[in-house]
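Subject: for your reference before the review

Hello V.,

The reviewers asked for a structural picture of the protein, and I figured it would be easier to keep everything in one thread rather than splitting it across files. Below is the amino acid sequence we used in the manuscript, unchanged from the supplementary table.
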Amino acid sequence: MGDHIGAEHQSPLATYKEAVNWINGLIPFGIRPGLSRMDMMMEQLGQPHRRLKFIHVAGTNGKGSTCAFLTKVLLATGYSVGTFTSPYITKFTNRFQYNGDDIPEETLLDLTNRLRPVVDAIALTELGSPTMFEVSTALAILYYAEVCVPDVVVWETGLGGRLDVTNIVNPVVSVITNVGLDHTDILGDTLSEIASEKAGIIKPGVPVVSCANQPEVVEVLRATAERNHSTLYLAGEQFTYERLDYESSMQSFHYAGPFRSMDIEIGMKGEHQIANASAAMMVLEVLRQYMAFVMDDEELLQGFRNTVWAGRLEEIGTSPRIILDGAHNPEGAETLVKSLPQYYKYQSLNLMMGMLSNKHHESYLKHILPIVDTLILTEPDFRKKMDVNKLLEIVEQLKPIYGKPNLQIIVEPDWRIALDKLKLRTEEADLGVVSGTLYLIADVRGSLLNLSDSEKGW
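And here is what came back from the structure prediction:
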């Protein structure tokens, strides 16, 4: 701890890069569940989070897309919106957006310099140093409460819900998109256990919207909502959605809720996006009915039509055709397998994938292997990456049962070389897909789009 002595006399950080390096320097403190350090930071900063209206979004999959729909529609209907999401796809500033734009680098630097003495002081207490994600969350709150003051903040959980750092806020409405088996090392091994963690964002009297459909999950959500005297709006019960049709660029669905029904069109591909858009619509209806939000229908529908989200069935390049999709858990893989043949015609499917080492990848591969002709295994450029040979071991075990008879496997740890191999193999009639952890998607996307300032990660 010696290096913290006299911390208050440190000279301020001078550049954006120094600020990001200082925040990332807190990564070794890991993810430490619990809100005690957040409480202390908020107290020392004058409880800025109490001045804002939050929509708190949790769930296993679909959080990012649901946040994107909410942001786009609220902006289209004339509201100012803060959006806090993670992990980011291109640049550290992506996670703090105001009206669709990243936080300016100099604002991030100013706020980091304000936070640093507070963080250093807490590091000297028995609570230990705030983590990288705690500091980022505090930075977001300061930005929204004191710099840009949006009408509403779309607030995505990092992990789980109950003990997640973002749970410091008391939202106007909570969303739990769905519940699946992900982060079982931290959140528990069963759907009920994971649902209990996610349901931890349900606050007394605050309405909650969910598209979860497994009976044991619904039971947990119902019980938690009842205990908190919160109204639960559940897909299939209080609101429903029915797919109408899809063509290459748009898909439409019929939404029917407790207050009204309407047909909605979205440009995002995949049946799961209809569920995410419906959840967003139900949230907007709660804001309209109970919080005096005024939204013009035409603008609302336009917002849904215009929503896009990087790295989700995102087509980049036509020759060869390459799709990026951040499916990294079994539910994500299942959705990807269902969506690809619906939207694309192809002769061979070439899949490049890289994973983090903290996941069970067998069930992901069981879903995906049956449709793959060439599998390119690689490693994301990230500290928790899964060793490519360990991934190969799992593939070799599953290949006889789930793989096509002529499945070809290429092992290339360097993702840049792997991407070149994918491009070379993917001919005019084929489809190339890059999937797995968003840390890999972020790098590949930056490379394909020639984004020079691509940084990535948490």
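For the response letter, the relevant points are probably these. DSSP finds 15 helices and 17 strands in the chain. The CA atoms of residues 304 and 320 lie 29 Å apart.

Happy to draft the paragraph if you're swamped.

O.
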